[in-house]
């Protein structure tokens, strides 16, 4: 119930991570892969599932969704998990989704890409929503523009087999540096038509990489861990997630996670405060 209250209305980003040193050449076992569910607003992982070595994230994600209460939440995933079954599980679970679309869904991707390429160049002939924002930093200026169109306004759009599909989306990122300019377009489908909310979900999806996977590798040395016997890799991955969640919630000291880890090893009182404060 505490987790349920924490994630109500949140953006939940699903993404996989390979534990690169968990392979075992002696037994022929490859490195294990886990799928994580990240609560963007609350900065902790609310679910983890080992991906079966004979399958991939596509089969694991529906199972993990069923374990979570996603009512009122927005689920995000990369193009690998842009699948009809996943969209259906999200809708049946009472949530919304924003899913990246690439060439693994060729018909859907081509329809969306060609529509936006023509509309952005020649002008939109149907009702659409638009939002733009600028970011400065790291020696560059980035402009992000987001267009969304309700599929009810597109009589040619024939993808009714996607549960809950409401909007098609184009996100264009224009980066300007002293060396020149680059433009990238990405495409998405969403189960709602709030452009600002869609753009926010797209941007917050990357928190799972920047705030979870990067931290697990850099601060917890996950990729260097050689635990590989039986269920040890999966168990250690779970323990790291628990430790990461506990440290994330400790707010008495405004220092890095690495420094909190070190202090917890040196100071039993600080360690007890971390554990008791979750």
What features would you describe in this structure?
There is one protein chain. With 278 residues, this protein is α+β, with helices and mostly antiparallel strands. The chain has a domain at 98-195. It contains nine helices and nine strands. The chain has helices spanning 2-7, 57-67, 84-92, 106-122, 195-204, 207-218, 232-249, 257-266, 268-276, and strands at residues 11-18, 33-39, 44-51, 74-77, 96-101, 129-137, 140-150, 167-177, 180-190. Strands 3-2-1-4-5-9-8-7-6 form a nine-stranded mixed sheet, with helices on both faces. Helix 2 packs parallel to helix 3. The mean pLDDT is 90.
Which structural class is indicated by helix and strand composition? Answer: alpha+beta
Q: How many helix segments? A: 9
What gross morphology would you assign? globular
Q: Strand order, biggest sheet?
A: 3-2-1-4-5-9-8-7-6
What is the string of helix and strand elements? HEEEHEHEHEEEEHHHHH
Structural Rg:
21 Å
Brief summary:
The protein has nine helices and nine strands. The protein is an alpha+beta fold and 278 residues long.
